[in-house]
Structures are given as structure tokens and as C-alpha cells.
Amino acid sequence: MFERLDAVKPALQKLIAALRERFAYASVLATDERYRMWRVSKNGISITSEGDGGYGFVIRVFDETGCAEYSINAFSEELIPAIVKEMQARLEAERAALPEGVTPLPTAIPDDSPAVLKKEAQFEIDPAALGDEAILERIARIREKGMQAEHVLDVSCNVTYCAERKLFLSEHRDLDETHMWTTAGVGAFGARGEELKNSYKGYSLLGGAELLSEVEHDVGDVTATLGDLLRSEPMIPGEYDCVCNPEVTGMIVHEAFGHGVEMDMFVKDRAQARQFMGEYVASPLVTMHDGSAVDECATWAFDDEGTLTGDTVIIDKGVLRRGMCDALSAARLGVTPTGNGRRESYERKAYTRMTNTYFEGGGATMEEMIASIPYGFLLEEPTSGMEDPKNWGIQCMVNIAREIRDGKLTGRVFSPIVLTGYVPDLLKSVSMMGGKIELAGGGYCGKGYKEWVKVSDGGACMKARIRLG
Amino acid sequence: MERIKRLLKEAGISDYIIYGYTERTAELFFVKRQLDTRRLKDVEKFNVTVFRTAEKDGTKLRAFTGAMVLAADSDAEIVKALKDAYFAAQFAMNPYYELPDPVTAPTVEAHGRLAEQAPEQSAGEMADALFKADCDKDAFLNSAEVFAIQKRVHVVSSRGTDVSWTEAEIKGEYVVQAKEPEDVELYRDFCFTELETEALTTQAKEALMFVRDRAHAQRILKSGNYDLLLTGENVMMTLWFYGDRAEASMIYPGYSAWKVGDDVQGETVGERINITLRALAPYSKEGIPMRDRKLLENGVLKCVHGSNRLCRYLGAEPTGDYRKFSCDNPGTMTFQDMQKRPCLWAVTFSGFEMDPFSGHFGGEIRLAYLIEDGRMTPVTGGSVNGILLDAQKDLTFSTDRYTEIGYDGPYAILLKNVAVAGTDA
């Protein structure tokens, strides 16, 4: 797969040698991608093939102002002199135009100790081999099944897969990996007057079209939830005992805490977590991981700066142990990078980003949690969230809160719901943790409002005290 | 472009739209006044959409799929990508529609320093404009990113469209911080099509003032219903609801029941809304000429907008996709007068959300001013959970104006009786 990277690899090594004559460090990340999304809805049938990445290169060097990068998508051995000349000229022009008084942020050149790796993508069914016709037929059948429910205005069904190859080359590193993820989603829409309600379920897998069989089973659940939403009531603000299903747990892991331990935020003095290392920030039931110890959409053997990945334990039984870190931030902070330097594509900067982030499981069941609550809510269907590393404020939106009274679900449903509060208060209030961990990688994660990368997050169901509005 | 046209012919594809562009950027990343990283970009891409027609049970059908082509690809690679896309299209048939009407015109060149000088120079000048606002110790610039972008676009279609234009944008984001009495920050972004250095300095000064107040903000907001004052980009995001609901992609599947001529604001006691969609580029990605279009006149829908296929299905004129609108209400109250009445002025949120499906809007409050008895108290925490379909019945716009790349209109909007969850909840 992606043979054109094999064809240019010797020339990329020559480019690095040419750059090393002028710069203290040089590396290249080369990428190629095969992306396809199939979608059926009332808007029609579509096949889309343009992902965010594609074939391209990001060249990284270190000069007297520190780290500099050049992103291009045309490369051959013949172009090397022109690329080096253009890059040097433009970097000099950029340096000359810097505002007066700007100085480089002191950054040691990242570790370039020798490493060689080659890893192939693992999957059972290649979506490309299964073919457009078969995939569209299957998702059209799923949609038809969903459309049979009376209250449904539309059902949309989509499947996306992305096969990527990344090649990281520097003077001492030769890292090469192909990777494939597949995601799917079913959304059901219904109207209540002018208000349109929708329920959505996502699926994800580090692998191929074998995911589809899972989707076919669940469409009835999505349309049933839509029915619940169509009779939902506005939330009565307050602090409640809540049971989070694994998806909501995942959003809390990711938005409420994960962004706060991205260590490029430590460099900028933008993360409160830096002051809490070694302290209790959560209930002893909480142990949090990020990394490649699980197989999900964001499992890579190395990151976009050529750092090998692993399993980072961020919270250990309630105690904050460490953050996750890209190579440049690690050099600035004097710590070891954790393989979290990720880019939206070869066209973008690398930042500290999460990969697969989750809470370890405990021993309770959801039924036990519900039974333990005199009055509260079961939270389902996270829709969005926004990080606040500096002040550890929470903003997470969920679609559904199911009322619990005297240890039982009453059938009353509230929507939409805004979760707010202070992150350590919420995490310290975790009083029960479920046993079965589920990760979801259907979405993308932004840094602020941009830089979208594929991530997964999750955990088990958990019981906590949460402010709802 | 000529090479791709030749290869499309070789692949036996007669219906297509090619959207090709080159993009050149200079990017600067700062931590305080220290340079974190600098970046440059030079890319060229061609998005080729191929169309295929078929007939089933006497009904004409049409399908499209896309292929991404690079100038560096060999002829054989391009032909394979095009043939694969054309093959796939037979499985994605939809009701038939015509491709956009042909249009040819000379290149529309963007003018001004941002379009004409090197992006490296523009990035440096905008960074300097940001630092000009950063003169105090109690509130300061924490970090910033600046992106200077020059783009050259060319759209060609099998129906004879051949248009091209250039674009320039300078955009970025920054975080301001105040450390006393509480260590807090606020996020701001910006985007201009001219080198608006003074506007950026002014915006950054305002952000520094707000973060100073956030450092003093108290968690005293009580739950209840408030008259809510939204300003700046939150006004823009709220009013985009009308643009979203009038999109062909919402109307065609029935997600929105709006029709041209509908009074979409319903019965009101406040101001009637007037909105115009504004063209930011001369043509859409499909090569449709873009022009300003009245969207709402006194709360009544005047047009449906969107891509070629869905507009044609609705029997509407294809308009292309809009990224900017103006709210043409001159306003009935100065912003100063608005601040004299009891209300909650929500300045910034963790992430303001306007859901075009449900009409719900809101988010977690990072800074608001509680205005009571003529006193303004900075508050933080709590969340707004409003319903625009209710709130639109009684709106007041400010006479003060606000402009950014996606919006031109009143700076402030007052919405009555909006639900707020306080920090007492």
C-alpha cells in the first residue's frame, strides 16, 4: 500500500543529508492516505474521497531561531536543490519580518537516537476490496430499517475508512507504519414543531469493514432514543447524582481532564495541572491512561515527530502522575516525550495531542449504580465539549438525561443538558466505577477550535456528582 | 489544468468540475514574546468531481464522486484515480440535475498589501500589531498564532466554466492572561482579508480588559431566567441560525420546513430581523458566481441558498456556499443604554454553541457582567441554555456596529427571559 512513498524514500534521505549541511537538525515526515466516506440520507447517496491528509511532506529543521518547518506536496530528487533554496530564502524572509524584541523560545534539539520500525495495518476486511456497491447496499438497508419507525423524519447512515502510511526519516531514524481505521454512524431525526431532535450512535475500529456487522444490530435503539427525545423536557438546573454511560465517561476523560494534561499547555503556563503533580485530583477509583496500549483509531507506533509511543499513566488511583508531551515541549520542560506530538495533516503544526484516552474499569455495574441513587440521572449521548486547562472548568453537552428516582429509571427524559463545574470536584466525586471499558473513536478532537485529529476516548460507566443545566 | 482536462478525456469522462488551487502560507507561533515555531507552506491540489448519468425505470439519474489529484502525480496515476472515481459513481445515483451554468471571466485578482506582499512580511506585521496591545503587567498576551495565507483558485467544468481568482487572509488566535487575584485566561481568534493591524490591536486591547475583569469575577450567579445580552462573535453565531436553517441541505431533506415567503420569526413584540448573505469570493467551489443576497427581510425568508445539486432539486437558483452575512438592522438602542438596564451580559463562553436543528444556544460562562441597579459585577461559571425559537419573539439590536470576516452588523443583541444555570445550582 502507498508504494509512492517507497519510490521517494531514497531521495528524502538525500534531502535530509543536504539540509544537515546547513541546519543542526533535519527530519521529514512523509504521509499518504486513502480515505473514503459513504453516506445515505434524504439528502441523497454520496461517496467522498477527500480526507484532511493526503500525500505530502513536512520538513523540520533547527536554525538560530529554533524550530522551523516547511510543508510541501511536490517532491522528487530533481527538486531537492530548489526545495532547499526556497525553504532557506523564505525562512530568512520570515525571520527578517519578526517584530522587534522577539527572541527564540529556548529549545534543545530533540533526541534523535537511532530507531528503526516497520509496521503494517491490521484489518479483516479491506473496505476498498469490499467495494462501493456492497457498502452502500448495506448502509441503505440499515437506513431503510430505521425509516420504518413512525416518528422518524430521516435516518442518515455513514461509513468512513482511512488507510494512512507515515514515514518518519531523520539522520538516525527510519520509522514506517501503515494504519487503518473505520468508523460508522447512524443518526435519526424527528421534528417537534420547529424544533428538530436527533439521536446518534457512532462506531469505530482500528481495522476495516468488519465494523459494519455491529452497526446493523443497533439502528432500532437509535430510533427508540429519538422517540424519547421527542417527548423530552428542559433540564431543571441543579447538582445531581449521575450515572455516566461509557461514552459520557469518555467525554469527561477527554474534555474535562485530558486537554488539561497536554504539556504544551505547561510550557505556556496555561494548565493548572502542572501545580498538582503528585496530588489527589480524583477519587482513588480513577486511573487514567493515554497511548497505544489499546487498539483504537489513534493507535500508532510513533507520533508525527518521530517519537515512539507507549502507555502513559496520567492519573494513578486518583493521584496525578504525569502529563502527555510532544517532543518540542518535552525539550523545553526537560522531560521525556510520550509520543503525543500529532498533526492534523502534513500541512499543520504538531502539538501535544491525546491519542486513546480512558479510565480503567472498576467492579460495579450500571444496574448497581442506578439502584444506589434516590434521585438523579443517567447521562447518555455526549455531543460536544470544550476544554479549559487553565481553570479546569467543565463544559460538556449531552443529549439525554434519563431520570432516576428511588433507584429506578422513571422513563422521564430531559434534553439538552450542559454539564458544568470544576474538574477535580467532579473527579473526586466518582463513587462507583463500572467494569467494562468501551472506547469510542468516531469523532475528531480539536485544539481550541482547529487542528482536528482522530482520537478515541472512553472508560466504563461511572457514578459521580455533577452540576447539570 | 489543461493536463487534467486531457486526462479526463483519455479516461472517457465527459462531465466534471475541477477545483484547483495553490496555497502559500507563512505561520508564526509565540509563547509570550518568544518564538515557539515558524512554518511555511507551498501546496498545489486539484479536487476533480466526476459525474455519471444513468436511467432507471425511465427516470434519469446522476451521480458524482471526487478524486484528489496532485501536479506531481504521473499521467497513469491520475487516469487511474479518475477511472476509479467514475466507476464508483455508478453506485451513488441520485435524481438527475444539471451542472452549474457555464461562466467564463478574466481572473479576479485580490488587491492590497496582504494579497501582494510576501506572506512572511504580513505575518510579522500582524504579530507586531498584537504585541502593540501588550503593554501592561497585570494582563498580558500569553501566546499567539498568526497565519498569512495567499491562495490562487481555478475552477473549470465540462460545461465550459473557466474562472479564477486570488484570495488572501490573515488569521490566527491568541490567549490573554491575568494572574491576580485569580490566574485566568481568555481565548480570542481573528480573521481579516486586509492587513487590519489597527483593528487587531484594538481587539487585543479589549481582550486584555476582559481578562482583567475575569480575574476579579465572582461565582455568584444564581439560577433563573435573565434578559441576556450577547455581543461580538456570539451575536454572529446566534444569527447564523437563520442562515443554517435556510440552507438547501436543511430544507431538501425536511429538517427545516422553511419556504421562501415564510414569516420565520413568527409573532414578535421586538425588532424584525433583516439579514443579507455576503459574497466573500467571486465564485463558489463549483464555479457559481457569488453575489450578495437578501436572506431575511423583516423576519420573512427571501431566499434559499446552497450547493448546485440541492438548490436545483428545490427549484431554487444555485447560490454557492456563504461564509459571511450582515445583519442590516440599524438597531434601536445604544450599547451604552443596553448596559443601563438589568440584564446578564455574557461576554465569553468556554465554547458558545448554536444548534441549527433544535434552536438551543448557550454554553458555560467564562466571563459575564451581572447588571443590577446600574452596577456591573463581573461573574464567572454557570451556563446559558436558551431557545432562539422562543427568544426571537422579543429581540433588541444595538445601534453600535461590529465587523469581522464572517459578519457585519449590530455589536449587541438583547434576548429576553433566557434560562441560566447559576453556580448555586
Plain-language structure description:
The complex is a heterodimer of chains A (469) and B (425). Chain A has ten helices and 26 strands. In chain A, strands 1, 2, 3, 4, 6, 7, 8 and 9 form an eight-stranded mixed sheet that branches. Chain A has a six-stranded mixed sheet with strand order 13-12-11-16-25-22. Chain A has a five-stranded mixed barrel with strand order 10-17-18-20-26. In chain A, α4 packs parallel to α5. The model of chain A has no long low-confidence stretch (mean pLDDT 94). By secondary structure, chain B is α+β, with helices and mostly antiparallel strands. Chain B folds into two domains: 210 residues, PmbA/TldD superfamily (PmbA/TldD fold, 2-Layer Sandwich); 209 residues, no CATH class. In chain B, the strands form three sheets. A seven-stranded antiparallel sheet of chain B has the order 4-3-2-1-5-6-7. In chain B, a hairpin with a 4-residue loop joins β5 and β6. In chain B, α4 runs parallel beside α5. In chain B, 51% of the residues are buried. The chains are: A alpha+beta (469), B alpha+beta (425). Chains A and B meet through β2, β4, α2, β5 and α4 of A and β1, β2, β3, α2 and β4 of B.
Task: Please summarize what this structure is.
The complex is a heterodimer of chains A (469) and B (425). With 469 residues, chain A is of the alpha+beta class.
Q: What are the SSEs and their pairings?
A:
The complex is a heterodimer of chains A (469) and B (425).
Chain A: H1 3-20, E1 25-41, E2 44-48, E3 56-63, E4 66-72, H2 80-96, E5 103-104, E6 115-119, H3 127-130, H4 132-147, E7 154-170, E8 173-192, E9 195-205, H5 212-230, E10 238-244, H6 246-257, H7 264-267, E11 288-291, E12 311-316, E13 319-320, H8 327-333, E14 341-342, E15 351-352, E16 356-359, H9 366-371, E17 375-386, E18 395-405, E19 408-414, E20 417-420, H10 423-428, E21 432-433, E22 438-440, E23 444-447, E24 450-454, E25 456-459, E26 462-468
Parallel strand pairs in A: 6-8, 10-17, 16-25
Antiparallel strand pairs in A: 1-2, 1-3, 1-7, 3-4, 7-8, 8-9, 10-26, 11-12, 11-16, 12-13, 14-15, 17-18, 18-19, 18-20, 20-26, 21-26, 22-25, 23-24
Chain B: H1 2-10, E1 15-31, E2 34-56, E3 59-69, H2 75-89, E4 94-95, H3 113-116, H4 119-132, E5 139-157, E6 162-178, E7 184-192, H5 197-216, E8 224-231, H6 233-245, H7 248-251, E9 275-278, E10 293-297, E11 300-301, H8 308-313, E12 324-327, H9 335-338, E13 343-349, E14 353-354, E15 360-372, E16 375-379, E17 383-387, H10 388-391, E18 395-397, E19 401-404, E20 407-410, E21 412-421
Parallel strand pairs in B: 8-13, 12-20
Antiparallel strand pairs in B: 1-2, 1-5, 2-3, 3-4, 5-6, 6-7, 8-21, 9-10, 9-12, 10-11, 13-15, 14-15, 15-16, 15-17, 17-21, 18-21, 19-20
Helix pairs in contact in B: 1-2, 4-5
